[in-house]
Design brief:
Blueprint lengths: L1 H15 L1 H4 L31 H37 L1 H15 L3 H12 L3 H28 L2 H8 L4 H9 L4 H24 L11 H8 L8 H28 L5
Helix pairs in contact: 1-3, 1-11, 3-4, 3-6, 3-9, 4-6, 5-6, 6-9, 7-8, 9-10, 9-11, 10-11
Amino acid sequence: MLSASLIIVFIVACAIFPEWIAPYSPLDMNVNHILQPPSAAYLLGTDQFGRDVFTLLVYGSRQSLLTGIGSVLIGGLAGALCGLLAGYHGRWLDTFFMRLIDVVMSIPGILLALAISVALGSGPLTIILAISVAVIPGYARVMRGQVIAVKSRQFIDAARAIGTPNREIMLRHILPNCLSPMLVMMTTGIGFSILISSALSFLGLGEISEIPDWGYLLSQGRSYMTIAWWIATFPGLAITCLVVSVNLIGDELRNRLDPRNS
C-alpha cells in the first residue's frame, strides 16, 4: 500500500512539475547519442531521435493522468446521474435508461472507445470522450442498485411525509448514502481508463505531438525492440506500475469503506 502510494505521488509530481524532475528538455535531440542504452548520463537510455527516454516518460505522464482522471470524472458523473434518476423514479425512466445501458454494455469497452475515436478523429479530448461513454454503463448500474436500496429506508419515507421535494431527497438524502461504492469504483476505474487510453494511443488515435504520451511512446519503441529494448520496455513498465498502484489504492479504499469490515 505504501509503495503504491509513493508511486502515484511520484507520477503526479512528474505530471505537475516535469521541468523540475526531468534532466533534459523533451525537445532536445542529440544525434550523437541515438539509441544509447541506459547509463549514468541517460538513466533509461535514448530513443531513435536521441531524446532521453526518462524525460519523455516524465513529460508524458501528464497526458496519461489527465486522460484517466478526466474520463472517469465525466463518465462517473454521467453514469451516477443516470443511475440516480432511474433508481429513484423507476417505471418508464428506469426501463429506458436500463435498456439503453444494456445496449452499450453489449459492446466491449475497448471496441466502443475505438469506434468513437475513429469516428471523431484523433486527439486527447476525443479519447476522454470515447472512454467516458464506454464506462458510463458500469457507474449507472452501480448507482441504480444503491439508490433502490436506500430509497426504501425509513428516513426517506419520513422525508416524503413532510413534503420534501424529490430533488432535495435525491441530492441531500439519497446521494450521500450512495457515494462510497461509487468512489471506490471511480478510483479503480482510473487504471482501466489509462489502459484504454494507452491502447488507443498505441494504435495512433491519441494526440501525436513532439511530446508523446506513454501509449504512443510504446508504439514508437516496438519497431526497435531487437536493437533498443528500453524504448518500449520502460513506458510499458510505467503504465503497469501506475495501473497496479491505482488498483491497490482502490482495493484498500474499498476495504476501509466496506461496513462489513468495521
